[in-house]
């Protein structure tokens, strides 16, 4: 089954492109777990990725993209953000076995959240918001610092 790339509104493209980095984040966690990398190393990476990518991305979505509409689909995305933040916080002080489970859970939460936004929420917002609202969102996002397109975390535990 062939899947076509999703055509995204130019006004939301910045956030949509950042989702690629998020999916890579999930893959890196899963690779680390699969290769038996210590949970401490993977947790350090999750802290790095949160502070350099996810935290700002969530803030931009919540304050810019989600602000014009507070419907059930938007509320679901906000709830996902809370679950992801909670899981990240729960990693601190976890035993190695508990941390493995929480890291796998984190990768699944982020992956599912990104796919939800790309497949359901963003198309919904593109249909529901007016052209004027989408244009304003695009202007606000464009005025922000560009997000780093790669992460420069030194410990590349996901590479053999």
UniProtKB/TrEMBL annotation:
Transmembrane segments: none annotated. Residues 40-125 form the Hemerythrin-like domain. This is Hemerythrin domain-containing protein. It comes from the Bacteria.
């Amino acid at each position: 089954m062939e899947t076509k790339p999703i055509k995204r509104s130019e006004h939301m493209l910045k956030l949509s492109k950042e989702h690629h980095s998020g999916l890579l984040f999930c893959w890196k966690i899963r690779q680390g777990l699969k290769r038996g990398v210590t949970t401490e190393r993977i947790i350090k990476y999750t802290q790095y990725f949160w502070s350099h990518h996810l935290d700002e991305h969530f803030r931009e979505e919540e304050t810019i993209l989600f602000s014009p509409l507070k419907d059930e689909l938007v509320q679901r995305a906000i709830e996902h953000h809370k679950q992801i933040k909670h899981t990240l916080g729960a990693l601190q002080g976890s035993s190695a076995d508990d941390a493995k489970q929480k890291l796998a859970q984190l990768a699944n939460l982020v992956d599912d959240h990104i796919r939800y936004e790309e497949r359901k929420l963003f198309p919904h917002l593109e249909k529901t918001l007016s052209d004027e609202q989408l244009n304003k969102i695009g202007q606000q996002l464009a005025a922000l610092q560009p997000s780093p397109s790669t992460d420069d975390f030194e410990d590349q535990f996901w590479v053999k």
